[in-house]
Each structure stands twice: as structure tokens, then as C-alpha cells.
Design goal:
DNA-binding, about 250 residues, 4-stranded antiparallel β-sheet, about 30% helix, homodimer, alpha+beta
Chain lengths: ~250, ~250
Amino acid sequence: MDADACIACSRRLCEYLPDDPPGQARTLVTLARGERLDTCREGCLKFWIVVRGWAAVSTGFPDGRRQITGLETAGDVICGLVASPAAPSWLEALEDCTICQLDLSRSAARLRDDPRFLAEVFHLTHQRLVGASQHLTTLGRLDSTERVILFLGQMALRRPGPAGAPVRLPMSREDIADYLGLNAETVSRVLTRLKKSKLVRFLAPTEYVVPDMAALARRLPVPIEAPGHDPSLPRVAGGGLAMEGRIA
Amino acid sequence: MDADACIACSRRLCEYLPDDPPGQARTLVTLARGERLDTCREGCLKFWIVVRGWAAVSTGFPDGRRQITGLETAGDVICGLVASPAAPSWLEALEDCTICQLDLSRSAARLRDDPRFLAEVFHLTHQRLVGASQHLTTLGRLDSTERVILFLGQMALRRPGPAGAPVRLPMSREDIADYLGLNAETVSRVLTRLKKSKLVRFLAPTEYVVPDMAALARRLPVPIEAPGHDPSLPRVAGGGLAMEGRIA
DNA sequence: CGTGAGATTGAACTTCATCAAGCCCTGTGG
DNA sequence: CCACAGGGCTTGATGAAGTTCAATCTCACG
């Protein structure tokens, strides 16, 4: 198994794998853009950790409408349990990416009594809930310009490296639209307006620079922050006592 | 303490209260319409259980925009940790209601190692995440008519009692609008259109009947189901082994 | 150099918000 | 008992915002 996977996965969920044969429980999957992994319905305990590239948690309607509920990149953990019986939900590669898939089903009986594991999955789920609630508010109460500004700001914050350096957009206009509850043409129009206003500068259709993050933030009624990362808490490497900072 | 509270609370979180003085850790709060309970920011472990009436989990912007992210009634549990540092978030009474407030902070050290408790809060958070993701998709991809139809259908399913009986709307048009990402006038217009189409019949502005739930459902690209209640699993009374049905 | 996917732009149209007026119902005070 | 006040609901007129459809442009790739 590629050691890079473990570097990306700060949560170290794989330490909960069964001791015996390392076999099928942990696999590295490579997805080409557009490929999907389906969330399992019932009776399985799977996790996906993005190792490289960007992927989207999406849901779809029979008539083709699609909503992206989360954008995930290296180190992000998706809990396979998130599937709802209502609408199908899946993980979709926005660009070529690598996913570490953990199947802990065989250890389920043991893990059900393991406080460290339970605290870890609680923390993951809670982080995701906070992110989902913010995104929900974005879709419900921000207009198209505000949504795009917030998106550009958040992507800039999530990119590793110094502030002010170029940000790469790992997805198409249509993907952005499906994340923001808009359509591709609207996204494009908002982007050209933002270019003209000098709030962002595009080096290429998928690469931009934010010259003045504070100026971006002033256009929004909410602070810009990376979703799913609580800046008030130190990131707990190694997992396990993740509730520490919250239950104290 | 009112015994009704414990009847409403199928989760029985109060069994995790410290044994010693029953004191301040468990209080019944009565809220008049519009009153709020603020989510605590840091270092506390509180839960709210709605005993009677309806309340909303809301967030707000400085400019006055409001988004309701969840509608809660008797038996629903709100995890106080849900607060995000970004925008303020609170629980707001939509009508006069009673809330059982549990403060487990003093037991936190013990609970951090209690698998039953951890499984319980994980389950609560997960249910909430599933609901939030569905609502997010609703706001992102359904038009105003679809949103209102889904809302009316879900409220009908959440009401105890036989299908087809009258449903009471415990909230104003503006509250509905803030839940659905619309404004009050639009909600009103959609409702009159639905009345004319005979899909719903209104006995009063806040009471309606759905003569044919299947007909409602046919107007939607998603099935109608009560948020936060996974129909595929039996409701586990008494809490504790709530992960049983999921991790197996 | 052609091809095709993605991005941009324009024009027409639909949907929803905004502003304003009027209605319904309840509670209150003369 | 009636008049009135006020909150919530409804309805209309208008305009802004976003979508749809279609045409064009850009650019990487064969």
C-alpha cells in the first residue's frame, strides 16, 4: 500500500482495521474524472479518505438535477453511512483522484465498544454537520454573487501554501454551479463581473488569485472560512481523542 | 421535574446525568413564541430535548437575513455542539414550547469513555446530518412549488395520528419562508395555487388536509419522508445501542 | 489543422423578490 | 356591543435576478 495514503490521512482510521489479514479491508482506488463510488445502503461500515485530487459528495434526482453537498480533497474523510434512503448519493471524482477505502465492517462488533473510535466518527460527523448547515444557509439566503465570492474565498483558504498564491479550481463551471445551486452560465457571468471588479484575477479559466482577501470578505454577510475545519481548535493528529476540545 | 419530559425523550439522555445532586444539570425551560436559547460556544456539553410545541434551529446574518436549518418538535434532540464559530446559531420557539435542557458538562470526563453515550450522540448527529443534506438539496435544486409541497408533505408525516387527518402548521408564513429559502409572499402565493389545484385543502390559515398524499408525491422528484427519521430502521427506544442497525 | 469539450456572451423568458395596498381575525378599550 | 388597532395573510404591480436556448469563442489534443 502506498505510504502517501497514510500521510494524507491525518485521522488514521486504518488503525482500527482488524489485525489479522490486511486483505480486502483497505484498498486504494483511483478514479478518473466523472467516475463514482456509491454509498453503501445498509450493513456496512466503510470510510473513504481522499488521498489526492478533488471529489464531490453528490445527490441526484431522476430528472437529472444534481446537487453537490460537499467538496473533498486530500485528508478529508467521508463516512459511508451518509447515504439516505431517499435520493441516491455518491462520491464523484471532479478530477483524477485517489481514494483510500476502508471497510471496517468485520471489526464492527469490536468498534461498537471502542470509545476512541466512536469519538472519532462522532467528530467527523459533527464537523460535516457544521459544514452542511453553513452550506445550507448559503443556498437559502445568499444571492449568486455572494455564493460565488464565498466559494472562491473558501477554495483559497483550503489550498495549502501561502495566502495570495494562485488557487487552482479543480472543477468545471457546471460542477461549481451544482455545488452552489446555480447553473453554469450564471457562474460564468458572475465570474466575469468579479474579474471586471478586480476582486479576483484569473490566470486561466481554472486558476485565479485573490489580491485582497479582506476586500472579498467585505462583500459578504458571513466570515469566510474553510468548511469542516474549526479554526478555534487545534487539529488533533492521530485521531482518537477528537472530542477532547469539545467536551471539556 | 415534569414526567412528561421523559415520555417525550425517547433517547433518555438524562440517564447520563451525574448521580449525585440532580441540581442544575437538568432544567425544564418554557419559551414563548420568538424567544431564543443560544447555542453555547465552547467547553460545554448541552442537549436540548423538545418536550412540547415546535422550535426552529436558526442562523442569522447581521443584515437580518435568517435561515431556519431545522424544525424540531416533541422528542427531537438538539445537540448544543452544533454551533459554528462563523454565524450565530440558536434555538427559537415557533410557538409556546417546553424544552428539557441537559447539561452533561460535569460528566464529560466519564462520558468520553462511555461507548453507549458516544454511540448515542453519534447516531443523533448522523441523523441530523442526513436531514441537513436533504434540506440542502431541497434549497439548491427544487423550485418554490416543489419546496412547499415537500414541506407540507413532511409536516403531515411528522404529525402523530392517522394519515389524512388535519395537520396544524405551528408557524407563520415568514417562518416557512425562512425554512425554505423563500419569502413570505411567495409562500403565500404557492399555497393559494396549491389550494386551487386541490392538492391540499385548508381548514384555516394554519390547518390543512392532504386528501391524497400520493398525488402530492407525484409532483416531486424525491420521495416524501420525515427528516431525521430513517424509516428503514426500527426506532431504538432507550438509546444506547443506536448504532446497532447501522454498524452490523 | 480539424475536432470537441468547456467557457463565454447575448436575447428572450420565467421565476421570485420587493413594495404597496387591502383583507381577515382577534383582542382591547370605550 | 361596537370601533379600532395590530398582526398576520393575501393579492397585485413592478422590477431584478436567474434560467434557458442558442451562438460564438478558446484551447488542448489528436
